[in-house]
Amino acid sequence: MIGFLVRRVFQAIVVVVAVMLLVFLLAHIIPGGAARAALGPRATRLQIAQFNRLNNYDRPLIIQFLLYLKNLVWHHYLGYSYHFNQGVTTVIASRLPKTLVLVGISTVLALIVAVPLGILQVVRRNKPVDYALTGASFIFYAMPSFLLGTLLILYLAVDVHVFSVEAPQGQTVASILADPRALVLPEVTLAAITIASFSRYMRSSMMEAMTEDYIRTARAKGASNRRVLFVHALRNAVIPIVTLLGLSIPSIVSGAVITETVFNYPGMGLLTYQAATTTDIPLLLGTAFVATLATVVGSLIADILYAVVDPRIRYARR
Questions:
Q1: Which of 78, 164, 205, 255 has its CB 3.0 to 4.6 Å from that of 182, i.e. a possible disulfide?
Q2: Does this model's pTM top 0.85?
Q3: Residues 111-134: what's their mean pLDDT?
Q4: Any long-range contacts for 267-270 (C-beta under 8 Å, 24+ apart)?
């Protein structure tokens, strides 16, 4: 297990560095570069040259990237945001907890709803309830988050006036949670698509588990349907969901970018959108680093939880 973790951590580091290098190269081929984005379209060539010299932008790209990694590893410095006039680390530190709240609540909500729905579909397999839930899951799974968010705003906020058009605008997590009415629509938008995905996987996993030999053995011993379903089948059926949860972090994070933009939620998603539209290259690199780190950490956690949930699994060197 220790050897597996060491290898996975090493692979995660390689992935993070590779993704950051790709984003770094793409960001620096933008016409005008960081200098034009920071100084504006009226900046003179002399001003641009001086800016590039002060920020090492006149050096080869590989040298710039190595300096960026050095500052990141040794000084935890992600650069300076020209749009917010603050350090990137400071800006991200103020926005990241809000996104963690949004994504955390939506993921927990998705699991609470999706697992029972998947079980219900297995119990009512090939019946109207199963067909209705399958159709609904396909609709929500195929629906873009910006469309779902917009429809919820138009109906529940504009027409019915039940919820707020805009997400909470507090500066702290406490102030965000203090306005739950404004938090409902962003959470529902982000959770709905995840529920659709998780419920389909849960249904398939439960159906596969119900055909296993140990289920027939349990029934032969006189176990009730309830015990067979929730004691014998559920534990094995939930294993793919654990893996899916870790691997779904990239899609949840990308969904948060769109959802936060639609509802003007002051988190990492909206920050990424603002960094892209203002060509704030240091901030864009910082948000890409956080998203990449979340992805590889989520994958690593999924691998660890897989072994915890299923004791039969042991990671050994092959």
A1: 164
A2: no
A3: 89
A4: 267/95, 267/96, 267/98, 267/99, 267/102, 268/92, 268/95, 268/96, 268/98, 268/99, 269/99, 270/95
